[in-house]
Write a structure and sequence with these properties.
38 strands, alpha+beta, 8-stranded parallel β-barrel
Length: 728
């Protein structure tokens, strides 16, 4: 593993676990892309760059009609100097022109991985885990300096990339486009995969062949969004879960983004990813710099599941941080769907007591505990306790819950403000807004302007004061609307289009300060469920509420799609009441439990209204999950049957030492006189024997993986079955 520079050929060879990435400095300082794929021992240029005289592809060096940037595979391309494809960046100079010309100036190779100022990113715990390369490019006319940062991990097939812009000139430079990475592939015979959806239908898998032209996904909502996740992959045609080449691209950012692939006239594919240039500019004064977010690029020669396992390991152990990174997450009961806004202290204590009797470890008080919050029309921003509902305050309530022997958690929505609030009446300019324009509301609320330091300072103080006031062990951090009228009263006219990104920088600062100040609190992010399920937030909060849709059948697709990129330890998954509050479907406690146990387990219903039979089932589920919890949250995950391809879903978890496994099978609809079915397991040790704990039968790992395991006879719609295996 390492990064090798060959001065004779002017090539950079980046080597990770089983992967190589090769670049070359060509002609008068252009940085070209040569290879990314399965690891090679040396880059001796068996596939040299080829240059042809292409009509209508102009030439930056007029003496050579075979050389054009329009056909050169590049690392970080510009527009206007003979390349007509989509650029990775674009700047505007004080004279109004948008032409720049970056050439190689220098490079530096070093151990470890540097932090990105003000931004979340993957990290190392010692410098021997990774090696980094900085390549400095410069535009001599404007004085623009661009630093490309590459890091390769020793034990993972990962390259991370980001870019830093520095204004070394004497005039202001305006960034119009500042993407984090670009890769020019030599052909376009790939399929594009991405994760799309809507509220309550997040991260559905979409897959289609590349075609000539530009294919893109993006967010213009001020958040990574329910609609598109900041992730795409290119797949070798025919690639599946366990075969074929896959290239994954994941942006560590929580705001507006774009991910796109352009297939040009010669059937080459250019892929780029970063902050969405739509409604974005950034002024760089002389001496100032701008840092782009990080993109995590993963290569797999063994299909999608191998790509996913790489992302899972990296994001769980080198993106998530803090006490709960490696600690088992508690089983919780949340009161939201049990009471909504209508509760008092007595009711909350009854639910908590019922949870304790069933073995649940954490009670979470959701929306409605503050000011006059009896519906969603008021009080956001006024983070002081409603003494009518909670006469003994949060401390009194939380102490009583803790005295039962379970922990206490609390819901916040710190990024929002209600028009009907004391905070808005005092500071009406503290929300995102545009002068002389109406202020559109979503869920009857506006968004606090986190681009302003005084707003961030206020939020840090009031949230910290609440967390200090009571024994609070868990925080659900919600965000329930997207940005409109994006403007800031604190920014001058020429910087208004910086607002959305400055908001994200402010949010990251707030999250960093609060989570650092309260290291013993487990923070879970939420945005109407999975509207901000992205790597940027995972850096501060080790888990996210996967979706507001808790229907078990819907969750099969939601959790399956989410698992393409995100570790199981990041997914909140709860059992809720039936008929389900989102889709009104009735399913058994059995399948609801088995789906939710494939994530961070909990309940979201009124435990005081359960029958004795239901209580017995839940008590058994809680005990069962405690036995498999570490395996589920930190084991290796394997997808077996896809809910996007048929009537059945199956997945499994295997411990790192392959001594234990948990397998879950789900069938949606029953079929008369149905054919028999079986599943072949994954990830076991073929040389070990495994006992099925349900019936004590023993089989070889090779037999279970190659011959398979019969699905037992199941009756009715919406049914499931699980197995536990232990090595003999």
């Amino acid at each position: 593993m390492g990064i090798i520079y060959n001065d004779a050929t002017k090539t950079f060879h980046l080597q990770a676990k089983d992967m190589s990435y090769v670049m070359q400095i060509v002609r008068s300082g252009y940085l070209a892309h040569l290879y990314w794929g399965k690891k090679i021992r040396e880059a001796n240029m068996s596939r040299k760059l080829q240059f042809l005289d292409r009509a209508f592809s102009p030439n930056p060096e007029p003496s050579d009609r075979t050389f054009s940037l329009d056909t050169l595979p590049q690392e970080y391309p510009a527009y206007g100097n003979t390349d007509f494809r989509t650029p990775a960046y674009q700047v505007q100079l004080e004279n109004g022109t948008t032409i720049s010309d970056l050439r190689y100036q220098s490079h530096r190779i070093f151990k470890g991985k540097p932090k990105l100022e003000g931004l979340p990113a993957t990290y190392v715990e010692n410098e021997d885990e990774a090696e980094s390369l900085e390549i400095v490019l410069r535009d001599d006319v404007s004085g623009l300096k661009v630093v490309l940062l590459y890091t390769v991990y020793e034990n993972l097939n990962v390259i991370t990339r980001s870019v830093r812009f520095e204004n070394k000139g004497e005039q202001t430079i305006k960034l119009l486009r500042a993407l984090s990475m670009n890769v020019d592939f030599f052909h376009a015979d790939y399929e594009l995969l991405h994760l799309s959806g809507a509220w309550a239908r997040e991260r559905y898998i979409e897959r289609r062949p590349l075609v000539v032209g530009t294919q893109s996904i993006e967010s213009r909502r001020g958040a990574s969004s329910h609609q598109h996740n900041p992730f795409i992959a290119l797949l070798e045609k025919g690639a599946g879960e366990y075969h074929g080449e896959v290239y994954g691209f994941s942006l560590v950012y929580s705001g507006n983004f774009i991910a796109q692939v352009e297939v040009d006239q010669y059937k080459t594919a250019r892929i780029s990813l970063g902050i969405n240039p739509f409604d974005f500019t950034w002024l760089l004064e002389p001496g100032e710099s701008f840092q782009t977010p990080e993109v995590v690029m993963v290569y797999s020669s063994n299909g999608l599941n191998d790509m996913s396992n790489t992302y899972h390991k990296l994001y769980r152990t080198r993106l998530a941080r803090g006490k709960y990174r490696d600690q088992e997450r508690p089983i919780l009961i949340n009161n939201w769907e049990a009471t909504y806004f209508h509760f008092n202290e007595e009711k909350i204590l009854q639910i908590a007591e019922a949870g304790k009797e069933l073995g649940i470890e954490l009670f979470v008080l959701d929306d409605g505990w503050f000011d006059k919050r009896d519906d969603d029309k008021s009080s956001l921003g006024d983070w002081f306790v409603d003494k009518k509902k909670l006469p003994n305050g949060l401390d009194g309530l939380a102490s009583k819950v803790c005295d039962m022997g379970i922990k206490f958690g609390l819901w916040f929505e710190p990024e929002m403000i209600s028009v009907d609030s004391e905070l808005y009446r005092k500071h009406p300019d503290w929300c995102l807004h545009v002068p002389n324009r109406p202020r559109s509301e979503g869920r009857n609320q506006l968004i606090l302007d986190y681009s302003r330091k005084e707003v961030c300072d206020y939020v840090i103080k009031v949230v910290s004061d609440i967390l200090k006031s009571a024994p609070i062990s868990y925080v659900k951090w919600d965000m329930n609307r997207h940005m409109t009228e994006i403007g800031s009263a604190a920014l001058p006219p020429e910087q208004q289009r910086e607002t959305a990104h400055r908001y994200m920088l402010g949010l990251y600062r707030v999250m960093e300060e609060i989570t650092s100040a309260f290291p013993d609190v487990l923070f879970e992010s939420c945005s109407g469920g999975g509207g901000r399920f992205d790597p940027g937030i995972l850096y501060y909060m080790p888990q996210t509420w996967t979706s507001d849709n808790t229907d078990a059948i819907s969750r099969l697709k939601i959790q399956y799609g989410t698992s393409l990129v995100y570790p199981i330890s990041a997914m909140g998954a709860h059992v809720s009441a039936v008929p389900n509050h989102q889709v009104h479907r009735v399913t058994s406690l059995d399948i609801r439990g088995n789906v939710a146990m494939s994530g961070n387990f909990g309940y979201e219903l009124d435990l005081t209204k359960l029958s004795e039979e239901e209580k017995a089932i839940i008590k058994e589920q809680v005990a069962f999950y405690k036995d498999i919890r570490r395996l589920v949250q930190f084991g290796t995950f394997y997808r077996i049957l896809s809910p996007f391809e048929g009537n059945e879903t199956a997945w499994m978890f295997v411990s790192e030492d392959k001594s234990e496994a948990f397998v879950a099978y789900f069938r949606i609809l029953a079929e008369a006189n149905a054919p028999l079915s079986s599943i072949r397991l994954k990830g076991l040790d073929p040389n070990k024997n495994y006992q099925l704990l349900e019936n004590r039968e023993v089989y070889g790992g090779d037999e279970l993986m190659y011959m398979g395991l019969n699905i037992p006879e199941l009756h009715g719609d919406y049914v499931s079955y699980v197995w536990r295996l232990k090595a003999c």
